[in-house]
């Protein structure tokens, strides 16, 4: 039994931030009931290709994007715009510990599914709302998209190649970091609220905003600015205070070299056949290398391009110089460390396919998270949830389906 197998989560979220939070609960054994729109479901079900393929190689129309954030859940289709649909959600909320939602501010109130309404049927309910800008403030009613949040929240001002350099300018992250980090912070907030409930019997409301999270996660860059009054700038793959601490192109690919002290610099240039660089007063100490980076880095770049990446990595690792490859995802899942940690898992799917997914990175000795169930087909568990949790009989379920409530 998972660490959270005693918890039921009613998941009214879609796309990424909310489902990511719900999936973390599900990995730890919580019973997560995913409420979806009849016929269409979560938007990400259709965000493909690529799609999961059957053993015969045919598309299942289960998008890979959807599969990434929805394992271990049960899918129930309900039209919450109908009175019967609202009744179903209220009845399920009354039997849940947590409600997650990411509708626009105030949208669920008109359906009687907001926190104030649901806590009347479940006083100790923990209710978490995930929005772009939070429930208060001048931007509260705006739609929040990860890309826009990365810009507003300052991330793109410190990410990307330096201005004036080839390819210089702001750059977003390769994944939706504001969404993903909001999902993780929401998980922490809800767990803290559950711990409070277990001690006091009191439920509470958790207000999560992508912009709040994006600002918070800039960590030391925030305090660098707050301490100095000077906004940090983009440095691309270089470091503002350490040289060389960046990417280099070899004769057949790219590597990262992260020289942390003068001794490592000497070992680096020794490995490249340029020991003279470590004796040059312009480069012998890190402060001098920082001051003279524009002279030094082109010389190092020429040195590194003379050999292949595997040769460089072997020689630098042997010398004790921190380094690493820049892997594509094919190389990532072939990496012996990734394989040893069991990061890829496969789950059987009703289509006959095996769903390849990435394992939770959390390792625990007694109650580890598990990938148990495939990401559900749309409405796969509607009948069983209504029957088992709400005691609906087959005739009532049939009427609801005929009227398109479910």
Order of helices and strands: EHEEEHEHEHEHHEHHEEHHHHHEHHEEHH
How large a portion of the residues is in β-strands, by DSSP E? 15-25%
**Percentage of helical residues?**
25-40%
Strand order of the largest sheet: 5-2-1-6-7-8
For the terminal residues, how far apart are their CA atoms?
A: 31 Å
CATH topology name of the largest domain: Rossmann fold
Shape by Cα distribution: elongated
Query: Would you tell me the structural class of the helices and strands?
Result: alpha/beta
Rg from C-alpha positions?
26 Å
Keywords: Transferase
Pfam family, one: CoA_transf_3
GO molecular function: CoA-transferase activity
InterPro entries: CoA-transferase_III_domain, CoA-Trfase_fam_III, CoA-Trfase_III_dom3_sf, CoA-Trfase_III_dom_1_sf
Report on this model:
Keywords: Transferase. This is L-carnitine dehydratase/bile acid-inducible protein F. The protein is an alpha/beta fold and 406 residues long. It has two domains: 8-217 and 339-402, Crotonobetainyl-coa:carnitine coa-transferase, domain 1 (Rossmann fold, 3-Layer(aba) Sandwich), CATH 3.40.50; 245-325, formyl-coa transferase, domain 3. The protein has 17 helices and 13 strands. The chain has a six-stranded parallel β-sheet with strand order 5-2-1-6-7-8, sandwiched between helices. Strand 12 (344-348) and strand 13 (354-358) form a beta hairpin. The longest helix has 24 residues, at 177-200.
Quick take:
By secondary structure, the protein is an alpha/beta fold. It has helices at 17-27, 64-67, 83-94, 115-118, 146-152, 177-200, 210-216, 219-228, 262-271, 276-279, 286-291, 293-304, 309-319, 329-332, 336-340, 382-390, 394-402, and strands at residues 8-12, 31-36, 51-53, 59-63, 73-77, 98-101, 126-131, 204-209, 245-249, 254-258, 323-325, 344-348, 354-358.
């Amino acid at each position: 039994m998972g660490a959270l197998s005693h918890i039921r989560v009613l998941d009214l979220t879609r796309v990424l931030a909310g489902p990511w939070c719900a999936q973390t609960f599900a990995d730890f054994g919580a019973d997560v009931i995913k409420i979806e729109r009849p016929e269409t479901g979560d938007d990400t079900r259709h965000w493909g290709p690529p799609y999961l393929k059957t053993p015969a190689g045919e598309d299942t129309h289960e998008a890979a994007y959807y599969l990434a954030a929805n394992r271990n859940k049960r899918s129930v289709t309900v039209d919450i715009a109908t009175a019967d649909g609202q009744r179903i959600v209220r009845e399920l909320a009354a039997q849940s510990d947590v409600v997650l939602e990411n509708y626009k501010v105030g949208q669920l109130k008109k359906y009687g599914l907001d926190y104030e309404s649901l806590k009347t049927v479940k006083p100790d309910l923990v209710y978490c709302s995930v929005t772009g800008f939070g429930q208060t403030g001048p931007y509260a009613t705006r739609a929040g998209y990860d890309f826009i949040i990365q810009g507003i929240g300052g991330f793109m001002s410190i990410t990307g190649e330096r201005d004036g350099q080839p390819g210089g300018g702001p750059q977003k992250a390769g994944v939706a970091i504001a969404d993903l980090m909001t999902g993780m912070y929401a998980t922490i907030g809800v767990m803290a609220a559950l711990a409070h409930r277990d001690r006091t019997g009191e439920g509470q409301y958790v207000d999560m905003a992508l912009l709040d999270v994006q600002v918070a996660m800039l960590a030391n860059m925030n305090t660098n600015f707050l301490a100095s009054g000077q906004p940090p700038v983009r440095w691309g793959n270089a470091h503002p205070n350490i040289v060389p601490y960046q990417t280099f192109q070899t004769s057949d690919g790219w590597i990262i070299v992260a020289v942390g002290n003068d001794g490592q610099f000497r070992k680096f240039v020794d490995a490249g056949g340029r020991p003279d660089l470590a004796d040059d007063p312009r480069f012998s100490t890190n402060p001098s290398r920082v001051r003279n980076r524009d002279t030094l880095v082109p010389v190092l770049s020429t040195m590194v391009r003379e050999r292949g990446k595997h040769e460089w990595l072997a020689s630098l690792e042997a010398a004790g110089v921190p380094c690493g490859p820049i892997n594509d995802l094919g190389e990532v899942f072939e990496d012996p460390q990734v394989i040893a940690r069991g990061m890829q898992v496969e789950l059987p799917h009703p289509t006959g396919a095996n769903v390849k997914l990435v394992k939770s990175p959390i390792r625990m000795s007694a109650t580890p998270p598990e990938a148990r169930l495939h990401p559900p087909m749309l409405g796969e568990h509607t009948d069983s949830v209504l029957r088992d949790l709400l005691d609906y009989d087959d005739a009532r379920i049939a009427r609801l389906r005929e009227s398109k409530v479910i």
